[in-house]
Amino acid sequence: MCGIVGIVGKRDVNTQLYDALTILQHRGQDAAGIVTCQGNGKVAQQKANGLVRDVFRTRHMQRLVGNIGIGHVRYPTAGSSGPALAQPFYVNSPYGIALAHNGNLVNADKLSEELFKTDLRHVNTDSDSEVLLNVFAHELQQQGKLIPAEQDIFAAVEGVHKRVSGGYAVVALIARYGIVAFRDPNGIRPLVYGKRMTDKGEEYMVASESVALDVLGFELIGDVAPGEAIYITFDGQLHRKQCAEKTALTPCIFEHVYFARPDSIMDGVSVYKARLRQGEKLAEQILQERPNHDIDVVIPIPDSSRVAGQALAYKIGVKFREGLIKNRYIGRTFIMPGQQMRKKSVRQKLNPIELEFRGKNVLLVDDSIVRGTTCQQIIQMAREAGAAKVYFASAAPAVVYPNVYGIDMPTTKELIAHGRSHQEVCEEIGADWLIYQDLEDLKAASADGGSGVTEFDCAVFDGEYITGDVDKDYLDKLEASRKEGKVKKKKELRAKEEESPIGLHNDGEDLHIH
Ligand SMILES: O=P(O)(O)OC[C@H]1O[C@H](OP(=O)(O)OP(=O)(O)O)[C@H](O)[C@@H]1O
Ligand SMILES: NC(=O)CC[C@H](N)C(=O)O
Ligand SMILES: [Mg+2]
């Protein structure tokens, strides 16, 4: 779940893109990139590993000129996390296209082979996003137009939907012509768009989350529908078309649990309200399981569980205390690459206020338990701070299946709840009592707000993969390739720095790529 953004403006869009990426930073901390384009077709790019504030210097911003542009913050789900895989990716034919992608493709290997053998295209990295870019470029090339019209762009997106399977929200810049954005036919990954009136005319923006539009003063028009594409020309004409034959709206429910900011609205669902309802439903379950519970205090694990924790505490009539204080300079742990870094960060990030724990029966609330990295350490901290009993509630059900649509959970082995009973997980994390949200309750928490969304991608909880092409065989292969990847990574780390892959269009200083 990376963050993507695209703006078609009436003046330089570089600082707007930068601001939008800082707002979407919670969706990816590994790399960031911006590509802009001027009316004469000149494209400029800056991308590198790091947070937005570290990747773009004044000297870069000054040279990222142009009225249209796209940006990306990356959380790796495919390929390595090196600088060559930072996005947007660029291909020079046809027209010059840069593309940024949130999601993960299920059939990237097959497509990669097809691109090489049939489409005669070279993909230089193991990024599925580079594959996606080349499929789109090929489909657009097939239209054979010197100046592409909206129907050519839409025909290319139709071609993409026919060939590609997985979760994908995409924004692409076509040099000289405009920006196209599209979403997979199941609407797994989020994408919204909006407009803003300026003294020079109307400007458009597409982004992963509505909060980016809010902060930049754009008015939300709505979500890009599953399978739909929108094309905004350089001079600001907006065109929309449904480009998939069969569509369904099944957004990833984990966005509501963890990924999205609570102040975002996705497919009409307020993430904040969904989290409040998650807390209330969890509270009902607690009251049902233990009507005479002895919880003295509810303490959330910051940041993502705060909203659910507060609603839960209110409903069970127990005080809510911020007993764990977060270091605001440490990022999100779950989306960091590598278990060692994740483990170390939990302690750096969170510190208990002893007074809130000493002698009390504490209910810790988190939005989810995935690898168990966070809860194991926090429960230990709570005990060291003198808690009498440590109970643990998760606002999501047990995560037991891998994710293949844009969350980096490719193997079951790393999931603490996989192959363990409820009681075994409780013992493994060291809690005195463990409560998981019921899946139907979680779905209801997202559906109850009246948005009309009733189906969700819940594969990590129920193992049902919406694209229909993910079976045991596929998951076994994925798991095996991940193991190979790890071995390769270790070897790579040992290798000299100059041997690690570098990007084709990324020399860092010369921003113009043609
Ligand atoms: O079981 P785990 O593998 O530890 O994963 C789950 C934890 O990771 C996330 O927190 P994170 O620190 O990433 O972000 P947050 O500050 O938004 O809560 C999530 O909110 C849980 O706390
Ligand atoms: N989290 C994402 O959306 C990742 C996008 C893409 N699969 C990558 O690894 O770069
Ligand atoms: Mg957390």
UniProtKB/TrEMBL annotation:
The active site is at residue 2. It is an enzyme of class 2 (transferase). It catalyses: 5-phospho-beta-D-ribosylamine + L-glutamate + diphosphate = 5-phospho-alpha-D-ribose 1-diphosphate + L-glutamine + H2O. One of its GO terms (molecular function) is amidophosphoribosyltransferase activity. Pathway: Purine metabolism; IMP biosynthesis via de novo pathway; N(1)-(5-phospho-D-ribosyl)glycinamide from 5-phospho-alpha-D-ribose 1-diphosphate: step 1/2. In the C-terminal section; belongs to the purine/pyrimidine phosphoribosyltransferase family. This is Amidophosphoribosyltransferase. The gene is purF.
